[in-house]
Amino acid sequence: MKKRSAGILLYRQIDQQIEVLLVHPGGPFWAKKDLAAWSIPKGEILEEEDPFSAAQREFSEELGLPVPEGQTKDLGLVKQSSKEVLAWAIEGQLNTKQVKSNTFEMEWPPRSGASQTFPEVDKAAWFDLATAQQKMVKGQVALLERLAEHLEVPLPLAEETKTAAVSAPPASALTTGSTDVPVQTTLL
Fold first, then answer.
1. Is 119 in a helix, a strand, or coil?
2. What residues have CB less than 8 Å from 14, skipping those under 6 apart?
């Protein structure tokens, strides 16, 4: 049976442009990865747990903040590697400077016997839809397509997106005030 995760795609509109909130996974495996590495805040659905409740719980655990109130839009299920991800879109605001992720421990370096603590999320940032298509793990890009369809806004074509990947400024330079903010961590 495939693992199932649930998550929230938070979005906002700034100067008639849609932006989505994505998180960058913490830990040594993801440390030097940027393109196709970001994700919606999401996590595994626990046994007997309602999927939307799991999405809300994971959002709060990964960001240290509650899910902003707002109307939800079910974006359905996407397949990401060996798991399935259920997602909901919510329009809202979130200050990335206030994000404080939970942590996990793992043996690092490998086979060293030493244990290190890493944040589950090391960065959170707002991205326009074109940039988000490049930043997101490929299995989740369909969520952007579904959001754009729901909001009745255009989504760049694949060729336009490839150009955006080469010429897109870093999130910290976006004119909408988006920032690529390192996340504070807290032990849970």
1. strand
2. 176, 177
- Both structure tokens of 96: 């990335």
Q: How far apart are CA 16 and CA 51, in angstroms?
A: 31
Residue spans of the domains in the chain: they are 3-183
Q: What are phi and psi of 2, to 5 degrees?
A: -70, 145
Could you name the CATH architecture of 3-183? Alpha-Beta Complex (3.90)
| Chain centroid offset of residue 119 CA | 14
Residue-wise pLDDT tens digits, 81-140: 889 999 999 999 999 999 999 988 999 888 899 999 999 999 999 999 999 999 999 999
How many Cβ atoms from other residues are within 10 Å of residue 22's Cβ?
A: 26
* Nearest-angstrom CA–CA distance, 116 and 182: 18
Position 167, amino acid: S
Confidence grade of residue 164 (pLDDT, cut at 50, 70, 90):
very low
Query: In the structure, what pLDDT confidence band is assigned to residue 49 with cuts at 50, 70 and 90?
Result: very high
Q: How far apart are CA 175 and CA 160, in angstroms?
A: 19
Residue 42's nearest CA partner among 34, 32, 54 is 54
By three-state DSSP, how is residue 135 classified? Answer: helix
**Cβ contacts of 37 within 8 Å, gap of 6 or more:** 24, 25, 30, 135, 137
